[in-house]
Amino acid sequence: MDQEFHRIKRLPPYVFAEVNAMKARARAASEDIIDLGMGNPDQPTPQHIVDKLVEAARNPRGHRYSMSRGIPGLRKAVSAYYERRFHVSLDPESEVIVTLGSKEGLANLAAAITSPGDVILVPNPSYPIHPYGFIIAGGSVRHIPVTPDAEFLVALDRAVKHSVPKPVALVLNYPANPTALLADLAFYAEVVAFCRHHGIYILSDLAYAEIYFDGDPPPSILEVPGARDVAVEFTSMSKTYSMPGWRIGFAAGNKRLIGALTRIKSYLDYGAFTPVQVAAAAALNGPQDCVEQVRTLYKERRDVLIEGLQQAGWNVPSPPATMFAWAPIPPAFAHMGSLEFSKILLAEANVAVAPGIGFGEHGDGHVRIALVENKHRIRQAIRNIKTFLQSYDKVLEESEKNRVASR
Fold first, then answer.
1. β partners of residue 251
2. Judgement on whether residues 296 and 375 belong to the same structural domain of the protein
3. Which of 370, 358, 302 is nearest to 126 (CA)?
4. For the purposes of burial, counting CB atoms within 10 Å of the CB of 206, is it exposed (0-12), middle (13-18) or buried (19 or more)?
5. Domain end residue (candidates: 255, 270, 285)
6. Is 63 domain-assigned?
7. d(CA 173, CA 399)
8. Which pTM was predicted?
9. What is the mean pLDDT of each run of 10 residues along the chain (407 residues)?
10. Facing residues of 233 across strands?
11. Spatial CA neighbour of 261 closest among 277, 250, 272
């Protein structure tokens, strides 16, 4: 009875657990930890959305089972959003489904389309559900680069030529978590043409479509002619409308994939609480100044963080989108990897970040910094980090002593 379950055996230990445990111990000891680790929006949900939830919750009929594919009003609101934002016309009956956040949708679609041993192409580093949704479903993941450029396309071609069996699907995520990279329509067009030619499905995660700072708004892959032959796209209310705990998102695009997700969800859930769906429709259909406000907020925090870290001696690229900075580990600490650096940063500077190794082996030279504290707290974090970096030789010496002592 001590044999580990098959699907659990395929999941490595949760690499964020050590940092989270340290964070909990420090807080229990009344230490002031500035948490820039988890991408958990700190702003309240806009009041008009909350008001609509309250109004809908007062209707007893809304307390019954809902629809697993989403109420018609919300699916129509999603279609209207795509028409307004991307000039893409979607059929709310066959090309849109509501999900319990994009994470649930991705995992359940993976379960719907994956047979044991199927090969899935996933960029590395990437958000953990992108590879592990398929691994849990029994698939095999082949990693490709995350940069949306010629190197990606060469790697994609090589992966298809040398994968047995032929890959079933490709996962994309731009603006990217954790790297904040952006893709343009020209890149999407090349990927769509390639995947249509080879009969490979595309699962695009567009959760950060509205959190952008520089240049044009990020495009949808569904804007590419013919994309709906192979592509489905996931988005979420969590970041755009500061609704992470509401667990509401949607998928749109290829009818066969939407149909597969609809069928598997019909066995698994009755859909999100109806008042939550009503409020989500109100968010999409209502005034959008709240979206501009949250975008401006993250941009201001980004500028404070990047400028402050540079002055502290840590050069971090300025992210053009998302609520994250993808920070290369300072050279003096690069040898220890992202997990040990994150633990030292927490212990010495009281700042929590996410180790890059948690997003894949090719993320181990970085840490992810989330813009989830106000500017005052970010400035405090920068001061702590500056003090830490100024005494790095002492920190490294102590770290080496502890490492030798633990042998």
1. 97, 234
2. yes
3. 358
4. buried
5. 285
6. yes
7. 36
8. 0.92
9. 74 78 86 91 95 96 92 98 98 97 92 94 95 94 94 95 94 97 97 97 97 94 98 96 95 97 93 96 97 96 98 96 97 92 93 94 96 97 94 68 57
10. 204, 252
11. 250
